[in-house]
Design goal:
8-stranded mixed beta sheet, 157 residues, 4 helices, single chain
Length: 157
């Protein structure tokens, strides 16, 4: 049984955790990773502190690109955490999330400027990450893994 079918479908959760050791390459999925306070995913090239420590993208956004003909998978958009059952791009900046048992994140940015030469955009003429990807900072560190529950702790007014 896969992670995708082993959990209740009405609970938001992590579908995939992805890292890369250098920028400009597709991230690869891992069994688990440690998120470090005010840094990001340990061992990930994009973990440098600042406001874009961790990137999140909903599986539902990836499915839009699949429907447009792209053969894409979690991590292909350089997202660290692929979610399922949570419309991350609808969460306002300042929203706090609990992931798994320990990790707490705060949404800091929605969307980004797509870099020149984006392989996904060149393939299908569009890319969802600039519109639907979100970025967060790590407030409380810990291990994240596929199947971890995601809980909304706070939504700003």
């Amino acid at each position: 049984m896969t992670q995708e079918t082993s959990k209740s479908s009405n609970q938001a959760r992590i579908l995939a955790v992805s890292v890369s050791d250098r920028k400009g390459v597709v991230k690869h999925n891992v069994d688990q990773a440690r998120l470090l306070v005010e840094h990001g995913l340990e061992g990930d090239a994009h973990a440098e502190g600042g406001i874009r420590q961790v990137s999140l993208l909903a599986r539902e956004s990836i499915d839009k690109m699949r429907a447009a003909g792209a053969q894409v998978h979690p991590g292909d958009f350089a997202e660290n955490l692929t979610t399922l059952g949570l419309d991350v791009c609808a969460l306002p900046v300042g929203t706090r999330l609990k992931v798994g048992e320990e990790v707490e994140l705060e949404i800091t940015q929605i969307g980004k400027t797509c870099h020149k030469g984006c392989a996904i955009r060149e393939l299908v003429g569009d890319c969802v990450m600039p519109r639907e990807g979100v970025f967060a900072r790590v407030l409380q560190e810990g291990i994240v893994k596929p199947g971890d529950a995601i809980e909304i702790l706070h939504v700003p007014d």
